[in-house]
Amino acid sequence: xxxxxxxxxxxxxxxxxxxxxxxxxxxxxxxxxxxxxxxxxxxxxxxxxxxxxxxxxxxxxxxxxxxxxxxxxxxxxxxxxxxxxxxxxxxxxxxxxxxxxxxxxxxxxxxxxxxxxxxxxxxxxxxxxxxxxxxxxxxxxxxxxxxxxxxxxxxxxxxxxxxxxxxxxxxxxxxxxxxxxxxxxxxxxxxxxxxxxxxxxxxxxxxxxxxxxxxxxxxxxxxxxxxxxxxxxxxxxxxxxxxxxxxxxxxxxxxxxxxxxxxxxxxxxxxxxxxxxxxxxxxxxxxxxxxxxxxxxxxx
Length: 300
Known about the structure:
By secondary structure, the protein is α/β, with parallel strands linked by helices. It folds into two domains: about 5-170, Rossmann fold (3-Layer(aba) Sandwich), CATH 3.40.50.300; about 190-295, GMP Synthetase, Chain A, domain 3 (2-Layer Sandwich). Helix content is about 35%, strand content about 20%. The protein has helices at about 20-30, 70-85, 105-115, 130-140, 160-170, 190-205, 240-245, 250-270, 290-295, and strands at about 5-15, 45-50, 55-60, 90-95, 120-125, 150, 215-220, 230-235, 270-280. The strands form two sheets. It has a six-stranded mixed β-sheet, with helices on both faces. A three-stranded mixed β-sheet has the order 7-8-9. β2 and β3 (about 55-60) form a beta hairpin. α6 (about 190-205) runs antiparallel to α8. The chain starts with 5 loop residues before the first strand and ends in a 7-residue tail after the last helix. The model is unreliable at about 35-45 (pLDDT under 50).
């Protein structure tokens, strides 16, 4: 390790659905955060680690999207996101390529004005618009706030990812290596497995249901021969949802399970025997006890 080694914490913020998790997965080069085209996919701060043995180490916090909260889970998610802004070394704010700055973006600008942390603006999804337009969008945002840098990217296509990494290192302090170089995330495997199941359910189900589901891993143990048995429960808010999640003759649940198992086997590098159950817990998103029970804790 050299004395020019830099290390620090970077939070990724932005309205729901602008591509925060896709960007983080792309920068790290491995899938950690779950991605789906439904809003509010990320509920907890996920820490991932990017290490370059020459330059330093970046610890990313992928926060839930900042939005107006509708229930206790929503409030929890927004508090986590806004609290992070003052605690990190760099803020990455991700927006979509547009000249329209909505109330959601204005709210984020107000939050940013309360901090002195350098903010790098990422205009994502530029592969969807004409090149000339990108300059207009940069201009629109430049008037809103004094950004450290503005970088157009396409996380989906991997465009300008190195520029993002380079400019983060510019603003990080010199410091120690927090994690071994082969660490990619501090999320325990159980938590990632629960998130994988939730992601597969989000992909397979229609729009009404996904917000109202949580996944708990009931047990995870390895048996002889290296097979890992995982029992998990999908919790939903209504009996009618339960029927949809299970599907005709269990077809939907089977599809979710098959897709999740495939990805877990890649994550754990082992054969997985996955059993899924579905339970109804009415209004779990408004119960402090149940929110904590599913691993959403303010103090972390």
